[in-house]
Amino acid sequence: MKPFMMSPAVMLSVCVWTWISCQAPVNEPSKLIPVNPLPKELTENSGLLEMDDDLYIGLNDGGNEAVLYLFSLKRRSGTRIVKINNAQNVDWEDLTMDSLYIYIADSGNNDGDRKDLTIYRVKKDDLRKHTEADAEKITYSYNTQTKFSSSSKNNFDCEALICVGDSLYLFSKNRGNKKTDLYSLPKVPGDYKAIHTGQFEAMGLITSASYRKTASKSELVLIGYDNKGKNYNGFMIYFPMVNGNHFLSGVSKRVDFNTSLQIESVMFHGDQQVYISNEEGGGKEGLIYKADLPL
User: Fold this and answer.
1) Looking at 73-77, 143-147, 184-188, 213-217, which range is the least confident one?
2) Which of 1, 86, 153, 175 is 20 to 30 A from 144, comparing alpha carbons?
3) β-pairing, 253-256 with 231-239?
4) What residue segments make up the domains of the chain, in order of their start?
5) Distance between CA atoms of residues 36 and 190, nearest Å
């Protein structure tokens, strides 16, 4: 297994960063505005992104086929299905990308006992041109995990993935303490220890992340819910000025949504909005919604 090493200076920065990460201020409840139904094939939607202009890619949750669904919101062109070879959908949860590849996070770990966590790397051009695409594997385990006993209150589930520079970053879905832990690992195929680099008081379960960098700033948004009984209390946490890879430090703004939807994916859309989608269930249809970023 290849260790992912950090210099002493970076380790000191991580320690400071973890210490200053703080609970986001809570704003007034906000609305999710419906934009478009999800394709009927996305019955257990768990990840969504816009690969090209108006070319969206979605995936279904664990136990479904190892396929990606490509579709348009503007054209009535139907849904194109691409089979992913050399891959298994144990518990697919999120998608991210760089200029050449799509990354599929097989990171779902409800009981905290998985030893086969994998991120699949697939060429964008293969998805554009073919009905099948080969995947390369990035396998990993968490450098903070020493026990793999099954527990519904573990802190090693994960549904949120971003790609920045030469690394992938995972935001955990902590059922035990309702925080999120940040881990990093290289984005090239191999077997790694994902390195813990920060923690944040999410006050709920993080289900997706999106990052973007423009000429003037870098931004991060996390979404999730705090489920109480059968209700999902959805929220968004927005980091408007990210400094380098210190994603969880600095100013953050929280928005609580006035809905009980099980929200599962987020992406930036335009200057001041995000697209958020939910998993259908409980009599609720799977839809893409838009929401304003908090100012």
Assistant:
1) 73-77
2) 86
3) antiparallel
4) 29-292
5) 38
Residue 128's CB is within 10 A of a number of other CB atoms, namely 14
Residue 155 has pLDDT above 90, yes or no: yes
Q: What is the pLDDT of residues 5-39, one digit of tens each?
A: 554 444 444 443 443 345 445 555 578 999 999 99
* CA distance readout (Å), 160 to 3, 82, 294: 22, 22, 21
* 147 contact partners, CB below 8 Å, separation of at least 6: none
Distances (CA, A) of 163 to 149, 186, 281: 30, 10, 30
The phi and psi torsions of 8 (rounded to 5 degrees) equal: -55, -35
CB under 8 Å to 40, separation ≥6 — which residues?
Answer: 79
pLDDT single digits (tens) 283-295:
889 999 999 999 8
106 close to 122: Cβ distance less than 8 angstroms: no
Chain mean pLDDT for the chain: 91
Cβ within 8 Å of residue 155, ≥6 positions away = 112, 172, 174, 175, 176, 177, 179, 181
| pLDDT score of 7 | 47
- Which residues fall within 8 angstroms of residue 279, CB to CB, at 6 or more apart? 44, 45, 46, 61, 262, 264, 286
Is 9 or 217 the better-scoring residue by pLDDT? 217
Residue 227: closest CA among 260, 266, 180, 269:
260
**Which of 160, 158, 159, 121 lies closest to 142 in space, CA to CA?**
158
The answer to whether residues 4 and 194 touch, using CB atoms and an 8 Å cutoff, is yes
Q: Say what the pLDDT of residue 38 is.
A: 96
Please give the CATH architecture assigned to the domain spanning 29-292.
Answer: 6 Propeller (2.120)
Cα separation, 78 vs 219, whole angstroms: 32
Measure the N-to-C terminal CA separation of the chain; round to a whole number of Å. Answer: 44
